[in-house]
Amino acid sequence: MAQELIELLRTVLKEERQPVHEQLARLEEGQQRLEENQLRLEERQQRLEERQQRWEEKLDNFMMETRSHFKKIDDELAGHRRMFELLSNDWRNAKIDIDYLSAKTGKHDVEIHQIKKRLELQQL
């Protein structure tokens, strides 16, 4: 009888423990899934950090290249400004020379006209 009671008690305990074991198994599975999800999240975060680092490097390179390009354009612009100033001075000087020569030509034309008139008067 004692043996039957022990077997009965074991059976009852086994039946009572079964839901607890099932629940524990579900909890362990859930915890395993959470750990796997956390690992995946950590991997994704690592990849995001690596991509962010690459973007930062690309941005730094782009900024340096842009500064270099801007410096080159600024230098070229300064050279063009100097060239325009020289051309403008040359243009002004040429205009002064043209005005002077034009005045001289007008004076010579008047003198030639006067000489022709004198010659015509002398021939008469």
Tell me what you see in this structure:
The structure is a single chain. The chain has one domain. It is built from one helix and no strands. It has one helix at 2-123. The longest helix has 122 residues, at 2-123. The relative contact order is 0.03. Residues 24-65 form a coiled coil. Keywords: Coiled coil.
Topology:
Blueprint: H1 2-123
Question: What key attributes describe this structure?
Answer:
coiled coil, about 120 residues, mainly alpha
How many beta-strand elements? 0
Per DSSP, the total helix count is 1
**How much of the polypeptide forms β-strand, as a percent range?**
under 5%
Quickly give the structural class. Answer: mainly alpha
Give the CA-CA distance, first to last residue: 177 Å
- Dominant shape: rod-shaped
What about the largest sheet? Answer: none
Q: What is the count of structural domains?
A: 1
Question: Could you name the ranges where pLDDT drops below 50 across 5 or more consecutive residues?
Answer: none
SSE series = H
Q: Quote the average pLDDT.
A: 91
- The percentage helix is over 70%
Radius of gyration: 52 Å
